[in-house]
Design goal:
The protein is α/β, with parallel strands linked by helices and 403 residues long. It contains 17 helices and eleven strands. It folds into two domains: 266 residues, Rossmann fold (3-Layer(aba) Sandwich); 86 residues, formyl-coa transferase, domain 3 (2-Layer Sandwich), CATH 3.30.1540. Strand 7 and strand 8 form a beta hairpin.
Length: 403
Amino acid sequence: MSARLPLQGLRVLDLASFIAAPVASTVLGDYGAEVIKIEPPGEGDPQRKLGQAHSIPQHPVNFCWHMTNRNKKAIALDLKHAEGRAVFERLARTADIMVVNFPLKVRARLGLRYADVAPLNPRLIYASLTGYGETGPDAEQPGFDSTAFFARSGLLDGLTYAGGPPAFSLPAQGDQMTGMNLFAAIAMALLHRERTGEGSEVSTSLHASGLWSNAILAQGALLGAYVAPRPPRTQPRSALANQYRTQDGRWIQLTIVREDKLWPELCAALERPDLMDDPRFTTTESRRAHATELAALLDPVFLAKPWPHWRERLRRHDITFGLLGILKDVPEDEQAVANGAIVPTTMPDMPRTLSAPIRLSFAPDPIAPGAAPDHGEHTDTLLAELGYGAAEIAALRESKTVA
């Protein structure tokens, strides 16, 4: 195993806001890159206040900000000022990667398109995130994960029950997925640069990522094939791919794909061998045709015993199942800790957090998550590294170019 993290020595300029694009630079930083968060003077990235949103669990610790911007450095820089542009250009010449999610018109106005910054640094990797892509009739339309990832891609349509109102998305799920897609694009650009010495532009969008996440249903739609609207749990398409409540109020998800192999095992696990002889349930086709009746028979069976009983019985017979986890389970999830999905931090008031879902055999563990930076916390330090003297820094502050 190498003693170095794989991205150690790389410098990333994070000019992005909110969640999706900054997630990519967060993961880059986890694996050794130096990440510099560039924010405007004033309030900075709106993500700093996202924890106040009604859909976010409320807590005195600004965990939304820390999760998305851990271990980063921060400089507050007005890119609209000529002096601010000069500071940015010095930074760009030192950088390996630049992450941007400004609207396309804003990039053009600020001179932050790839064509604008590539001459400053031919080895620069320019990572772009948009709501709907960079071409096409909706390229200029702003997008959040609830609109571009979930709504436009058909994901919410696929989750909606027949006759019911549309489903809702949960906070930032599409952002986290899309950020990992941008991280993957950056990794390929780094490999390309290693081979050719050339920088490049890479991108993804919330919309494209949502379609990719919804690939099975979306590909069917491309062929003119659709499933009926999602039926209620009591009228499943398959009773063996359904949810059942246990005596202690938990829910079990059955997902039995190999019915020919596992139907007899399920009957044994449930201690209902009589179901094997019921002519309604002898084949996969007949079980599907009588799924409502089978679900009605299985409901009281599962309801008669608590979750620990069914966990032991179903495991013994190699049934594919899962507990429908509730968020209150997460802090005590031993598997998540053992697998490195939940890791310790260096922050006393937020002692544990989530790691990126990547494991590498050739490198040490990622950098321990630390606090996200205060607004402009490293402005003076970074300016000094770029060669600005104390008087020049004071002048920049006086002109409100930096903060």
